[in-house]
Design a protein that fits this description.
Helix content is 45%, strand content 22%. By secondary structure, it is α+β, with helices and mostly antiparallel strands. It has four domains: 62 residues; 131 residues, Elongation Factor Tu (Ef-tu), domain 3 (Beta Barrel), CATH 2.40.30.170; 64 residues, RNA polymerase II/Efflux pump adaptor protein, barrel-sandwich hybrid domain (OB fold (Dihydrolipoamide Acetyltransferase, E2P)), CATH 2.40.50.100; 81 residues. The strands form three sheets. A six-stranded antiparallel barrel has the order 2-10-13-12-11-14. A hairpin with a 6-residue loop joins β11 and β12. It starts with a helix and ends with a helix.
């Protein structure tokens, strides 16, 4: 009789194996699901990272764009501040700048060397003061050489005249068959003499110029004023005057007016000049010139740069001041032309106007 325990042992083992086989696929499936879930998480992380990078790039690009636009606006503002003549034009007020009545440009002879400069930018000079001096030694050497060449040409002319005289005598004594040959030689000497005489005249002009340069080696100021600029470029490539002098004394105002208002201005018209920095400070003046024949540079003053039909041409007009007390060269002011019905402002008394209606404020508004 068999043992019951032994009889049931085999089925239990088989059942255990079967259960293991059943659990194993479940664990495999669970591991697969876990791997897929991990991949999904990694994929989501990658997408989040990519989106974050793209967002960061967009933000950085926006910041860069804002900085660039801000810098451009700042540059435009600086450019506007550098404009020599303000373009505020509201009602009867025009922007202007104080400048001297006269400037004097002193040019330098590029063929000569400046040995010494007696002034610097900002110096005040009187008429006749020394500005700079050329190297006179170089000019003296050229002058001596030119005089030697002049004497040599004179000797050539004398020699030609001697030969012509001798050939003329020989021709008169020669046979008729030889006279044609003498005539040809005389003509040749006369042509040479004519060329020498031309060279002598040219050399004479050269000597006179050199002598004049030597006598004027020191260049003096033609007017009293202030040295505005000195062009020290020595390579000969520069253009413009070597020195510029601003005349002392009376000033004038240079203003800009557009084509729609230029006909309302005329020479002799009275004008009132208002300070931009000193409240109620004014000066009386007279429009001395309306330069309607020469359009101003309108590159920064187009009413509508994108539409030529709406662009306005500008012109300059000038106001001569009765007094320039407290005004500075380059100072910006406002100018109000005065019609016959409007008396000029008494500059001894504050200008009669509303407290909030200063020319600067009205023009800006």
């Amino acid at each position: 009789m068999s043992d019951p325990k032994l009889t049931n042992s085999a089925p239990e083992s088989a059942q255990t194996d079967k259960t293991a086989e059943t659990v194993a696929p479940a664990e495999t499936t669970q591991a697969t699901d876990s791997a897929l879930e991990s991949k999904k998480k990694n994929s989501r992380k990658k997408r989040i990272i990519i989106i974050s990078i793209i967002a960061a790039v967009v933000v950085i690009a926006a910041i860069v764009l804002i900085v660039v636009l801000t810098n451009n606006n700042a540059a435009d503002a600086e450019s506007d501040e550098d404009i020599e003549y303000i373009d505020v034009q509201t009602g009867n007020y025009y922007g202007g700048v104080i400048e001297p009545q006269q400037t004097s440009d002193i040019n330098k002879d590029d063929e000569r060397t400046v040995s010494e400069v007696y002034v610097k930018v900002g110096d005040s000079v009187k008429k006749g003061d020394k500005l700079f001096e050329y190297d006179s030694n170089e000019t003296a050497v050229k002058l001596s050489k030119a005089k030697i060449e002049y004497d040599s040409i004179q000797n050539d002319i004398t020699e030609c005249e001697t030969r012509i005289s001798q050939l003329s005598r020989d021709r008169s004594e020669a046979d008729e068959s030889q006279q044609a040959d003498y005539t040809a030689q005389i003509q040749e000497q006369q042509n040479s003499k004519s060329q020498y005489e031309l060279n002598l005249k040219i050399k004479q002009v050269e000597i006179e110029n050199l002598q004049n340069s030597l006598d004027n080696s020191v260049v003096t100021a033609p007017i009293a004023g202030i040295i505005k600029q000195i062009n020290n470029t020595s390579d000969g490539s520069s253009s413009g005057a070597y020195m510029t002098i601003l005349m002392n004394g009376s000033y004038r105002v240079k203003c800009r007016v557009d084509e729609m208002n230029v006909r309302s201005l005329s020479e002799g018209m009275k004008a009132v000049v208002y300070s931009r920095v000193i409240k109620d400070k004014t000066w009386n003046g007279t429009i001395s010139k309306v330069d309607s024949s020469n359009p101003a540079d309108n590159s920064n003053n187009m009413m509508n740069a994108g539409n030529a039909d709406n662009a306005a041409t500008n012109y300059y007009f000038y106001v001569t001041l009765e007094s320039s007390d407290e005004l500075l060269l380059g100072e910006h002011v406002y100018v109000e032309p005065v019609t016959e019905d409007e008396p000029a402002v008494d500059t001894d008394e504050p200008a009669a106007q509303d407290a909030d209606a200063a020319p600067a404020e009205k023009a800006e508004n």
